[in-house]
């Protein structure tokens, strides 16, 4: 049985296990999918926890302001809102609380999320990917987090590669990145994904198209990572909002 998940992302998922295989071999595979249906997500039960706010299994941390809430205008999705126009203000991390992901020899991980940015991509600081739990994704105007894999925009990216996200993996001290990895258009959906093969390589995928493989500075194997997003203002004038339609991941145990 072959599962393609999404026609345009077949290349990313072509060698991922089928739903049948994962069901029959639960000790071998882990799977996560969320389309952020508001009714099942439990937004009304948000509570303060660990210095953040818990929403149905996700933890939100903010710099001064920032929220996550269901969209009221379209299909099930969430809006990660920086909460104002102040530079460096917003959601510094929005992380799934349950599963842990690690880079391990001879193990493969697949990841993909469908997002768009409302209110101006070039005036936002963004992250989509895997990052260490309970750590700041951004410092003041620049990326702070290491031991991570994902797509980014920060002050340096906005000025040097306007209109693009870069893709980056980082170990405990050193970043390895592809500049201009994903062309962004404001208020336009895009799928951002990657495939991690063992502790040796990670390849980004943008709307199902493979980018440049990175083969060094992958996160150290002892680091637990979480599904993570971030959205902050950048220019002091605009208020960017990241909308997430869905997120999915498969990992080899």
Structure, described:
This protein has a nine-stranded antiparallel sheet. By secondary structure, it is mainly beta. The chain has one domain (33-252): Jelly Rolls (Sandwich). A hairpin with a 7-residue loop joins strand 5 and strand 6 (78-81). The chain is built from four helices and 17 strands. The chain has helices at residues 10-13, 19-24, 38-41, 155-160, and strands at 29-34, 47-49, 52-55, 58-63, 67-70, 78-81, 90-96, 108-118, 124-132, 148-153, 164-170, 175-183, 190-197, 201-206, 209-210, 225-233, 241-252.
Provide the descriptors you would attach to this structure in a database record.
253 residues; 17 strands; Jelly Rolls
- CATH class descriptor: Mainly Beta
Looking at how many chains there are and whether they match, the oligomeric state comes to single chain
Instruction: Give the CA-CA distance, first to last residue.
Output: 21 Å
Query: How many structural domains are formed by the residues?
Result: 1
Largest sheet: 9 strands, antiparallel
Order of helices and strands: HHEHEEEEEEEEEHEEEEEEE
Strand order in space, largest sheet: 2-3-4-7-16-9-10-11-12
Strand segment tally: 17
Average pLDDT figure: 80
- The helix content is under 10%
Structural class by sheet pairing and helices = mainly beta
Total of DSSP H or I helical runs spanning 4+ residues: 4
- Compute the gyration radius: what is it? 17 Å
Low-confidence stretches: 1-6, 42-51
Residue share in β-strands: 35-45%
